[in-house]
Write a structure and sequence with these properties.
By secondary structure, the protein is of the alpha+beta class. Helices cover 51% and strands 37% of the residues.
Length: 93
Amino acid sequence: MFNSFEIAIAAAIAIVAASAASGAADAKAAAKSKCVMAGGEATMVTEDLAKFMANAALNNQIKANNWKASGAVKMTCKTELGTHCVARQRACS
């Protein structure tokens, strides 16, 4: 049959294979749940245009990286010379 050395080798191979499979599953789960705070910004003459363009830039970034938007868009605007708006939204891969 099998000697103790062959059994020990088979057991070691089984442990390595099981831990590799577990690590691959963990890595895949971590890759799927990786999230970022995506953003887009724009400076325009009116606030409505600045908001529209900042939101469009945000959507372009999310689509370009194949992310999926999660949650509400947070928009902040400042009026100086024109209106500068920044749109942010959580996005996950």
